[in-house]
């Protein structure tokens, strides 16, 4: 992170010295690499407001570069919009955190729904720790992967360990927990998870199957078949599982539907929803739930 800043700041003094049309300065290439300033740039997801002065310096460097290199201002706008969203998320997280009173958030949803990806962004914004309950079980079973546990000991053994993990996690404060996709099937798990706030990430099957096919089904034993193309195998498996689980997911305190969120944001494609935007919606839905419960008072109209 520091290295990134120093390479950014290094280019400042010589920014005006590069002749237009010449070979770009290495650091400048780095600066204008879209990926580094997109919403997925890891540095940006780290406490954006806390490092606001650094971000502001970077903004000034970028402005200078845009001027000197005649770079389209699109990068600068992307960068600024991304920074703005990170700050909005942080602000909303601070509001919600004061009402959560250290309670955990349990993210539930089908395999591939983004519990891990969104959970990490959410935890960072709230100042919570992030825990993946699958990883927690793997450690408890001596470092054996979920796939190995299924293959060697069977699903019941995994589910027993998953329940124990959820019980332990429910006793700890200030955590965002990405639960295993099947954690919702046992009633006792709901008892543990309801010690905190439960949020269902509702993602269309087609999106889930695409995501899972992109990374393969090796780490997801319930979707791993030897034949068929990965998308079809994942889709068919997810379809069967989701039919059995839809009632269970409905037990969650709050629901975030990517279908509705994308429509509300005017996006045609669900895959355009960033983890930051989804994390923001999780906070909005948690806030609604807390208001409904009387945990936050709704301002009375004047
Ligand atoms: N908003 C998003 N946009 C694009 N890809 C995403 C998004 N969220 C998650 N993904 C991708 O989808 C895949 C599954 O995401 P992730 O591991 O976070 O899901 P999960 O719900 O934790 O899955 P599991 O329950 O199987 O562990 C990953 O490859 C991740 O990069
Ligand atoms: O949906 C499920 O049943 C599962 C989801 C994964 O997170 C793992 O917990 C395991 O592969 C089972």
UniProtKB/TrEMBL annotation:
CDD domains (UniProt xref): SK
Pathway per the UniProt entry: Metabolic intermediate biosynthesis; chorismate biosynthesis; chorismate from D-erythrose 4-phosphate and phosphoenolpyruvate: step 5/7
Reactions catalysed, as given in the entry: shikimate + ATP = 3-phosphoshikimate + ADP + H(+)
Alphabetized GO MF terms: ATP binding; shikimate kinase activity
Coiled coil: none
Main location: plastid
GO cellular component: a single term: cytosol
GO biological process: amino acid biosynthetic process; aromatic amino acid family biosynthetic process
Location relative to the cell: Plastid, Chloroplast
Keyword Zinc-finger: no
Enzyme Commission designation: 2.7.1.71
Database matches in HAMAP family: Shikimate_kinase
Function recorded in the entry: Catalyzes the specific phosphorylation of the 3-hydroxyl group of shikimic acid using ATP as a cosubstrate.
Family label: Belongs to the shikimate kinase family.
Official protein name in the record: shikimate kinase
Source organism (scientific name): Rubroshorea leprosula
């Amino acid at each position: 992170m520091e290295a990134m800043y120093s390479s950014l700041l290094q280019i400042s003094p010589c920014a005006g010295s590069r002749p237009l049309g010449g070979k770009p300065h290495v650091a400048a290439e780095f600066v204008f690499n879209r990926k580094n300033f997109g919403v997925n740039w890891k540095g940006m997801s780290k406490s954006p407001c806390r490092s606001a002065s650094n971000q502001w310096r970077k903004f000034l460097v970028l402005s200078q570069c845009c001027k000197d290199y005649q770079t389209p201002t699109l990068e600068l706008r992307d960068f600024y919009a991304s920074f703005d969203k990170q700050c909005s998320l942080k602000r909303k997280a601070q509001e919600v955190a004061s009402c959560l009173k250290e309670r955990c958030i349990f993210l539930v949803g089908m395999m591939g729904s983004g519990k891990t990806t969104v959970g990490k962004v959410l935890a960072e914004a709230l100042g919570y720790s992030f825990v993946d309950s699958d990883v927690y079980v793997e450690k408890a079973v001596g470092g054996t992967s979920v796939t190995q546990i299924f293959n060697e000991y069977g699903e019941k053994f995994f589910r027993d360990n998953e329940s124990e993990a959820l019980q332990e996690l429910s006793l700890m404060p200030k955590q965002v927990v990405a639960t295993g996709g099947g954690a919702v099937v046992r009633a006792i798990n709901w008892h543990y998870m309801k010690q905190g706030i439960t949020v269902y990430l509702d993602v269309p099957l087609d999106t889930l199957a695409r995501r899972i096919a992109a990374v393969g089904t090796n780490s997801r034993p319930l979707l791993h078949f030897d034949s068929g193309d990965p998308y079809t195998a994942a889709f068919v498996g997810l379809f069967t599982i989701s039919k059995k689980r839809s009632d269970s997911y409905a037990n969650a305190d709050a629901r975030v539907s990517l279908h509705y969120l994308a429509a509300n944001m005017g996006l045609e494609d669900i895959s355009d929803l960033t983890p930051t935007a989804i994390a923001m919606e999780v906070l909005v839905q948690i806030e609604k739930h807390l208001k409904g419960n009387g945990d936050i008072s709704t301002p009375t109209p004047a």
